[in-house]
């Protein structure tokens, strides 16, 4: 199985990004940062999600993200799937915070169950085949709409969603050009998927130049 060790985000200011993610979500070891060298316009083709236990945890994390400098894209609200909302970090990455629960069962916390990297693809079937061939195991699959992979011992999971649907879920137009400004870190050989998302060999620290 190919497990995700961490995610690298390409940002304009590494120190500022480190502060934002620590203050907003309490994320440290899950993320790495490096200075972006390529241009990116519009939707970058992915979102990152924090899954939590209950609605007031969603509100808590969205609140700390906004206080740290994030922009609201979709205010938290109930849906047929549960409760969630979306924000955009100062570096441009889109984050959704969501729970499948519709009622609170305890006091709010800033704890989360998992980080989910959702890649927006035009061809889910081809993407699923590619990742299975590269060692990932399918956990859930809904035809041409959605695929979720086993995460193993990793706190970071991978899922595939249709690009237009993912952008709609995040509250942004689906058009976008240029770099994804993200890389997936793992222990196996590096590769790039059919949509240009790069998987790289894990490094031990952020890169600021």
Task: Write a short abstract of this structure.
The chain has 209 residues and is of the alpha/beta class. It has helices at residues 14-25, 55-68, 124-133, 163-170, and strands spanning 6-11, 31-35, 40-42, 46-51, 71-79, 82-88, 94-99, 114-121, 138-142, 146-149, 156-162, 176-178, 182-186, 191-192, 198-201. A hairpin with a 5-residue loop joins strand 14 (191-192) and strand 15 (198-201).
Question: What does it look like?
Answer:
With 209 residues, the chain is an alpha/beta fold. It starts with 5 loop residues before the first strand and ends in an 8-residue tail after the last strand. Helix content is 21%, strand content 38%. The longest helix is centred in the N-terminal third of the chain and has 14 residues.
């Amino acid at each position: 199985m190919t497990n995700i060790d961490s995610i690298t985000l390409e940002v304009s200011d590494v120190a500022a990004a480190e502060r934002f993610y620590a203050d907003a979500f309490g994320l440290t070891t899950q993320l790495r940062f490096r200075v972006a060298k390529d241009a990116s316009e519009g939707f970058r083709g992915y979102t990152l999600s924090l899954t939590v236990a209950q609605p007031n945890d969603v509100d808590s994390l969205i609140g700390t993200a906004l206080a740290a400098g994030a922009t609201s894209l979709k205010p938290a609200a109930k849906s047929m799937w549960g409760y969630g909302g979306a924000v955009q970090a100062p570096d441009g990455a889109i984050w959704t915070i969501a729970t499948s629960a519709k009622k609170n069962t305890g006091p709010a916390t800033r704890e989360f169950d998992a980080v989910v990297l959702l890649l927006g693809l035009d061809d889910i079937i081809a993407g699923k085949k590619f990742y299975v061939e590269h060692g990932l195991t399918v956990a859930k699959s809904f035809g041409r709409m959605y695929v979720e992979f086993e995460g193993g011992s990793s706190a970071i999971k991978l899922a595939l969603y249709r690009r237009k649907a993912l952008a709609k879920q995040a509250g942004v137009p689906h058009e976008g050009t240029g770099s994804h400004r993200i890389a997936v870190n793992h222990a196996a050989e590096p590769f790039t998927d059919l949509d240009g998302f790069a998987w790289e060999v894990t490094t031990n620290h952020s890169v600021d130049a």
